[in-house]
């Protein structure tokens, strides 16, 4: 089973310029401090801890990485409404497409001889030869399919018994109980007989 990649619920924030939507690795802007909003790296800040911080994004009295910042809340709200509206739009669009396909694109009638055929190529259309539709499948297709299915069953059944035998062997090897050993031997003999019949 393939799972969808993990999507972060919060918006990424750059540790260099403090803007949202990218990270420090991909930042091309000058450094801005997370505490005092000056144009220097946060690690080089000389502001005392007892003075209030100043947000670089909204000029509020909090650090730029505060999740209660009005800029962050607005971006988060915009992101969640965009996701919801995109989901609703996609759902409505797929449902309406499913409902309206038959009414807006009816199947061409088989009596129309000029209807385009999917196997009719451009080269055939431009050549002077008249187009001949491919011959319908032969009526003995059911016989062919039946024989194919029977042959497939005869190949699959030994594989299933082989898997059962392997499971019984693994069970015996892990427990070493005599009852499991006899089950394994019985399945192994059955498999040998079945394979001998197929040869």
Concise description?
With 199 residues, the chain is mainly α.
Describe what this molecule looks like in 3D.
With 199 residues, the chain is mostly helical. Among the domains are: 69 residues, no CATH class; 58 residues. The protein is 48% helix and 0% strand. It contains 4 helices and no strands. Helix 3 packs antiparallel against helix 4. The longest helix has 35 residues. It is elongated. It starts with 69 loop residues before the first helix and ends with a helix. 9% of the residues are buried. About 9% of the residues have low confidence.
Number of helices: 4
- What is the alpha-carbon Rg in Å? 35 Å
Give the terminus-to-terminus CA distance.
37 Å
Rounded mean pLDDT is: 77
- Give, in order, the helices and strands: HHHH
Largest sheet: none
Bulk shape = elongated
The total of beta strands comes to 0
Binned, the helix content reads 40-55%
* Secondary structural class: mainly alpha
As residue ranges, the low-confidence spans are 95-105, 110-115
Q: β content, as a range?
A: under 5%
């Amino acid at each position: 089973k393939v799972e969808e990649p993990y999507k972060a619920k919060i918006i990424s924030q750059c540790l260099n310029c403090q803007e949202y939507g990218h990270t420090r690795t991909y930042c091309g802007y000058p450094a801005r401090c997370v505490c005092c909003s000056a144009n220097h790296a946060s690690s080089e800040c000389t502001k005392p801890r007892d003075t209030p911080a100043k947000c670089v994004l909204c000029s509020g009295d909090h650090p730029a990485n505060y999740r209660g910042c009005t800029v962050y809340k607005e971006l988060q709200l915009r992101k969640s409404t965009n996701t919801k509206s995109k989901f609703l739009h996609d759902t409505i669009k797929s449902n309406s497409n499913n409902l309206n396909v038959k009414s807006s694109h009816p199947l061409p009638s088989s009596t129309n001889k000029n209807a385009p055929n999917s196997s009719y190529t451009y080269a055939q259309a431009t050549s002077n030869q008249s187009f001949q539709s491919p011959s319908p499948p032969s009526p003995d297709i059911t016989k062919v399919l039946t024989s194919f299915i029977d042959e497939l069953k005869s190949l699959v059944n030994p594989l299933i018994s082989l898997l059962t035998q392997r499971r019984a062997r693994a069970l015996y090897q892990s427990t070493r109980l005599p009852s499991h050993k006899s089950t394994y031997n019985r399945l192994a003999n059955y498999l040998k007989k079945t394979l001998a019949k197929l040869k």
